[in-house]
Amino acid sequence: MALGFRILPRSRAVSAEWVERFRDLPVANVSDVMARMTAGGPRLRPMHDGAPLRGPAFTVKTRPGDNLMIHKALGLAAPGDVIVVDAGGDLTNALIGELMLAQMVRRGLGGIVINGAIRDSAAIAAQSFPVFAAGVTHRGPYKDGPGEINVPVAIDGMVIEPGDLILGDDDGLLCVPFGSVEAIHAAAMAKQAAEHKQMANIEAGTHDAAWVDAALRRLGCEGVE
Question: How confident is the model at residue 1 (pLDDT cuts 50, 70, 90)?
Fold first, then answer.
């Protein structure tokens, strides 16, 4: 086994049906029902025009500054897949640019997440193909390896297994574990419905904020009536 330099098959992936069911759910609502304990970190920001990111993870682990295995992943990932790259968060060298973006668009991929840097940022910002990254630099990548494809990766403590559901919007990035997709979807739908009701009450002037004083009394705050 060439640990650290290998390409593995992906054994499972969240279905296109479940990807579509999450299409209109805000990442914040999904995050709330996951106990607010999972996140891809505040550095990972949308570098494109803001279109939402949804799709099964196709993972890549590479050494900082090297994109050899990302190039390989472009040819292996299936339409709709989101390539998730753990590059250690280093921003010294860009790992993708406009040319690689064109390949991903051509292959019908669902997006790319890079815990690292990109370049050709103006061209990427002008397109709707989802690109999340931690920064921008003009310095190009190396192509020497090593790296791994379809292994578990971690971004700012968020563990991503191949085939997990990746979600992203203007609030950031989130991974929904493969085995929890159905339960988390049901909880997030209920959360979204509750927020819609709360917004309607706010707009109608009937919003009840009595819980604030109740919480303050429970916590022993002085001066609460």
Answer: low
Query: How many whole angstroms separate alpha carbon 48 and alpha carbon 116?
Result: 15
Q: Please indicate if the annotation marks 76 as binding a ligand.
A: no
Annotated binding residue 21 = no
User: For residue 54, which amino acid is it?
Assistant: R
106 is in an annotated binding site: no
pTM tops 0.90, yes or no: yes
Q: Is 119 annotated as a binding residue?
A: yes
Q: How far apart are CA 131 and CA 101, in angstroms?
A: 9
Residues 169, 65: Cα–Cα separation, whole Å = 26
The three-class DSSP label of residue 108 is coil
For residue range 105-153, what is the model confidence (pLDDT) as tens digits?
Answer: 999 999 999 999 999 999 999 999 999 999 999 999 999 999 999 999 9
**Closest listed residue to residue 133, CA positions, set 78, 83, 79:** 83
Q: Describe the crossing of helices 68-76 and 98-107 by its angle, rounded to 10 degrees.
A: 20
Give the confidence band of 50 by pLDDT, cuts at 50, 70, 90. Answer: confident
3-state secondary structure of 216: helix
The annotation status of 171 as a binding-site residue, yes or no, is: no
The domains of the chain, with CATH numbers, are: 6-179 (3.50.30.40), 187-219 (no CATH)
